[in-house]
Automatic annotation (TrEMBL):
GO terms for molecular function: chromatin binding. One of its GO terms (cellular component) is Set1C/COMPASS complex. The gene is Wdr82. Pfam families: WD40 (PF00400). InterPro entries: Swd2/WDR82, WD40/YVTN_repeat-like_dom_sf, WD40_repeat_dom_sf, WD40_rpt. This is WDR82 protein.
Amino acid sequence: DTIRYLSLHDNKYIRYFPGHTKRVVALSMSPVDDTFISGSLDKTIRLWDLRSPNCQGLMHLQGKPVCSFDPEGLIFAAGVNSEMVKLYDLRSFDKGPFATFKMQYDRTCEWTGLKFSNDGKLILISTNGGFIRLIDAFKGAVLHTFGGYNNSKAVTLEASFTPDSQFIMIGSEDGKIHVWNGESGMKVAVLDGKHTGPITCLQFNPKFMTFASACSNMAFWLPTIDD
């Protein structure tokens, strides 16, 4: 239930952040400063500063949270109970959310993650079911629901935007990666990474056309120039 801050340089823990009383299920670092947010099964979201072991702010929710900063580091989104997205201003988050988007509740699965696109216009909601949702970050309208990939065992599969915010990709149980065009909603590719298990991690390089996918082993991907 404790968060640890690790220095990769000398492989030591710099600081521990105690406070949550149950497992931490969401963690998001501010893109602009030393603050980060965490969500836990204790139904709270906490706001932290890397320089202090004490929590800087606390929010009580009605259920399991997922949370993420926007690319400017000005607001953060919290997904609550797998049916609501609440947007908070970082400077006044104790006043409550400035926007709440209610989604249709799906009892077959839970939300497992939220991500903003780099242009800040879209929010991607990951689930442990067979679909992910793309919503408008300003109005909360569901733009697309992407499915057709394997996830029968309710695994947490990480979905990602490409850095230009145009494509969305997710791994699957059978080791393949599915890619959709965010604007049209059409599937544009299925990539076979020869993964032996479910692809639970998928991260794009923020600057270059490369990404990494991982099950128990990891694959690095490069574009083919002739295509």
